[in-house]
Amino acid sequence: MRNESWRNGVALLTALFILAPVGLIVWQSFLTDAFFSPRAGVTGATYGFVLDDPGFWDALRNTVVLSVGMVVIAVPLGSLLAFLMVRTDLPGRKWIEPAIFLPLFMSPMVLAFGYIVSIGPSGFWSVWWERLFGAPFWNVYSMPMLILVVGLSHVTHVYIYVSTALRTVPSDLEEAARVAGGSPLTVATKITLPLVWPSIAVSAVLVAFLGFELFGLPYVLGDQDGRMVLATYLYKFNTLLGRPAYQLMAVVVIFIMLITLPLVMLQRRMLRTAQRYSTIGGKATRAHLVPLGRWRWIAFAAVLLWLYAVVLLPLSGVMLRSVVTTWGPLVAVRDVLTWDNYAKLAEMPLIRRSIVNTVILAFVGGFASLCVYALIGLASHRSPLKTTRGLDFLVLLPRAMPGIVAGLVVFWIFLFVPVLKPFVASLAAMWVAYTLVWLPFGLRLVSTSFGQVGRELEEAAHVTGAGALRVARDVTLPLSRHGLMAAWLLAFLLYSREYSTGIFLMGQGNEVMGTMLVSLWNGGNIDVASSLAVVNTLVIGGGIALALRLGVRLDA
Amino acid sequence: MRDFNTSALGRWLACACLVAAPVIATADIPEGYPADYAALVAKAETEGSVVVYANTEHAAIEPIVEDFQKAFPKIRVDYIEIKAADLFSRVSSESAAGALKADMVWSSAMDLQYQMVEDGIAAEYVSPEKGAVPAWSNFGDKIYGITYEPVVMVYNSKLVSAEEMPDTRAGLASWLIANKQRMTGKVATYDPERSGLGFFAVSADAANGNALWPLVTAFGAVDTKFYTSTGTMLEKISAGEHAIGYNIIGPYAYLRAERDPNVKVVVPKDFTVVLSRLAIVTEKAQHPAAARVFLDYLLSHRGQTVVGNQAHLFAIRPDVEGSATIAGLSAEYGDILKPVKIGPELLDAIQPMQRLAFFRKWNDALKAGK
């Protein structure tokens, strides 16, 4: 009998890590004021207040539509993109790969702003269009546009999951299908798709989750018409009643959790048979690419079109904004050109500090989070225990909290738990919040990769006398390195642009770029915000390109 | 400060200060300051830093901090910028946990700032500069107004000519109705439900007579767009997406107008609400002396000159000259300026029932125009 008690230990710690903030929110939702306030009394009226507000139902409807729309757009496209990149002879894969991650570099608020500058009513692409073809047929502030933008910009999330899975799937089956005369499409749908189905299912659920807590894009693009989704509706309670109404925010978070519950069940159902799909066997095989034939250039053009929509359009808007004092159809660009926005950037000593902090948090912190996710993943990996399987449900809960709420709750926990108090407003507290918020994403990536390691390899190691640690070190971890690397990359990207989570945990000298950007932008300093956004994109993009060049390869 | 003096370390430091005082006294204490001010500065320098929580953006703060550093090289300013409502959350949470890090809290959310006084977070301190600033700008020696910021209208001169742009609320209301087709979707203002500052400014309008409500009805008629931040509004007015912005915070508007000649500022002639960024020194400050020295600097002639002429936040001290000062504004607009009174009545703005009643009236007025 192997010793399994360590699994219980890890499960318990994880549960505490998740349930402490969730518990605090439940408690807060039944109070009349902030939980730490002497004015607070117990009440259930908070739920009635929210349910009676027509604004809540509007926001709920918008959220569901947005979330469904996102899944419908992002999941098929992301899966297709992964197939094209990993499995086919699509031209230009080498340089397309880093570009795929570009939509993740920019803070969603800046991304949304980029769209306004490029295809908004005064946007420069709109002005060109108007000159050539007449009035534009789109409205950047409309709901269909919002769905399209969020859908297309989340293709990358799905891509990361599915491509990671694909890289571990041996290609001999596809090759057999191809030899037997299957077209690329038949191979993709009949062979590849079923093999990576668990990853697609997981990414679909996660994207739907992201849809529920989406803040930046709907906040900026829905601002002027007051169109709200649950996360922006919740934010309204920060000011609606004068003092921040935490109890009402807590109620909305609880509703988000309840609504996302069916999604969790759905995911469990879909993954019940996941073990069938362990695909990393003992035999080494070399990957063979499916030739696309005449589809080659069509696929290439489609990928470029997507990159144009999610990278070039918003990025060109932000870049243009960073070198002008103003924009729009009323001015000629040559009259308003300036490098001042970059000069101003150099004048702020804070910027340098925030870049350093961001890199530390994203790179080192991202790695530390990866270690946490890997530990939790190992604890529940092929675990016979009920406790660890309970984690399946728990780990999704933190994502039902929008970043700003998660940040506030982690701040409260650090503040009101005596042992943690000295660490409040430190990079460490920020790291804890980030790790919590992105737990479902990192963990799923890691644990699906673990799931694809053939059981027989681990069993073989056990039989020859290896303990759990040894099996993890010599078998599971090395074989799932794709998933681990992808999780690190994802953490790096998400941490480097995260902004809302850190607001309450910011202290002297631990500013991060994401938060700086948003506060500059909110403060009306769009000149510096856009030049900083461009620098931010270059720093992260350069980092990724360098890493790929130096041989840190996702497909190694 | 009481805690400080009774602790052993405090006593030791106080002794050290007394010994050091004669030496430092020869250093420049501003004129008119009490004789023992050198001791306060010495103590502040031993403390070494002052932690400021505020919502003024870094770019505006940079010149102030830089100049303060020149005046007091031994006192570092740790400036933490947080949005107004989040700032309040942070301060009240930290205070409830007995772990307040801020030595000074400085924010444009006047109502929430006064709530902190009410909650016992602010310390009483009679600044030696008190006599030099308007008497109404301080309440109970616990809360000090640092700036004098008019709330203005803004327009894009390529879309609306200077001759036709109205300069009163009543004028704007009737002009919008008369130009309904042209102005539909072209007007921007704060959403009072989603912006604390927006609510505060518009409820100050409502407190100054009845001119607001016909204007709100006109807003409804031209399908006005409602925003949560000044930055977005100014950006879109500058780009021509909107033509007119109502209730824009002065410093941002003037700064924008300076950079973009198409953006013009109108100071409403019927009355102009004036807001102030309010500062409190915290009761539980870990650097109490440094906080006081920083407050005195902000109110001093030197500090106010930077606040007005470099940070463009509009100096509140009458003896500072320049366009972005109370003197410059008063010379030009005189009696139409209506500064919001600083005192317990600020709390009216954050009574939930009053707010909900206001929103109902606001939404009814909007609907009446549609």
| Gap from first CA to last CA of chain B | 58 Å
Report the largest inter-chain contact: A-B, 60 and 65 residues
- Total of helices of chain B: 16
Annotation, overall tally of beta strands of chain B: 13
Q: Write down the CATH class of the largest domain in chain A.
A: Mainly Alpha
Described by strand count, sense and barrel closure, the largest sheet of chain B is: 7 strands, mixed
Quick one: overall form of chain B?
A: globular
The radius of gyration computed from the alpha-carbon positions of chain B, rounded to a whole number of angstroms, is 22 Å
3D architecture notes:
The complex is a heterodimer of chains A (556) and B (370). With 556 residues, chain A is mostly helical. Chain A has two domains: 219 residues, Orthogonal Bundle (MetI-like fold); 218 residues, MetI-like (MetI-like fold, Orthogonal Bundle), CATH 1.10.3720. The longest helix of chain A has 34 residues. Chain A is globular. The relative contact order of chain A is 0.14. The model of chain A has no long low-confidence stretch (mean pLDDT 84). Chain B is 47% helix and 15% strand. In chain B, the strands form two sheets. In chain B, strands 6, 7, 8, 9, 10, 11 and 13 form a seven-stranded mixed beta sheet that branches. A six-stranded mixed beta sheet of chain B has the order 2-1-3-12-5-4, sandwiched between helices. The radius of gyration of chain B is 22 Å and the shape is globular. In chain B, 55% of the residues are buried.
Topology readout:
The complex is a heterodimer of chains A (556) and B (370).
Chain A (H helix, E strand, L loop, with lengths): L4 H25 L15 H8 L1 H34 L5 H8 L7 H12 L4 H10 L9 H11 L1 H14 L3 H8 L4 H30 L2 H6 L8 H7 L9 H26 L23 H28 L10 H4 L3 H8 L1 H32 L5 H9 L8 H14 L10 H11 L1 H13 L3 H9 L4 H12 L1 H17 L15 H10 L3 H24 L7
Helix pairs in contact in A: 1-13, 1-17, 1-18, 1-19, 2-13, 3-7, 3-8, 3-10, 5-14, 8-10, 8-24, 9-10, 10-13, 10-21, 12-13, 14-26, 16-26, 17-20, 17-21, 17-24, 19-20, 21-24, 22-23, 25-26
Chain B lengths: L1 H5 L1 H18 L11 H11 L1 E6 L3 H14 L4 E6 L2 H13 L7 E4 L2 H9 L19 E2 L3 E3 L3 E8 L12 H10 L1 H4 L3 E4 L5 H12 L4 H10 L3 E3 L2 H10 L4 E6 H10 L3 E4 L5 E4 L2 E4 L6 H12 L1 H9 L16 H8 L3 E3 L12 H18 L1
Parallel strand pairs in B: 1-2, 1-3, 7-8, 7-9, 11-13
Antiparallel strand pairs in B: 3-12, 4-5, 5-12, 6-9, 6-10, 6-11
Helix pairs in contact in B: 2-3, 3-13, 7-10, 10-16, 13-14
